[in-house]
Design brief:
Layout: H1 10-18, E1 25-33, H2 36-46, H3 56-61, H4 73-76, E2 110-120, E3 129-144, E4 147-160, E5 165-176
Antiparallel strand pairs: 1-3, 2-5, 3-4, 4-5
Amino acid sequence: MSFTPEPGTPLAEYYAQTQPRTGAVLTRRSLGTLDAVTIGRYALTIGATDPVHYDAAAARSAGYADVVAPPNMLAAIVEWGIGTPEAQLQPDGTPVGGDTPLGDGALGLRVMGAGEEMELVSPVTAGTEVVLEATLEAVTPKQTRSGTCVFVTTINTFMSAEGAVLNRNRRTVVLRNPLQES
């Protein structure tokens, strides 16, 4: 038995627009070249104090070409540019046009993280040009105890400009209809 969201709801509209795109590459873009300063700042911010993250000599003596990013760095960065002005952020604080298709903002869907898995394939060192490819893996409607929802799973594949996979990140969010005013 297949289940779809209740017809006429914002969630049903979202599902009808998004589900046919399952398997599609949503975006592929260069995130730029990762530099030693950015890696070091991130490492120190998260408490990763191993010198391989901010000292090139220590990284080379450990077998790396340059300073190496902490394993979760690629997946942790939400926005790779200079940032979005606060007035232009969505209510949840994220920039519009992210890598997860959340539909037309006018639908007013509620969004919540539902899980994340990282596959760390290869260390990322300073000087690596990072490319991100986001693929829509699944759009799955479910009836839960608290109502109808749609689980959306994307795979973010971070790779070098030459195509070597660095990290795969599977993210799932759950979408629900807007709250009804009473």
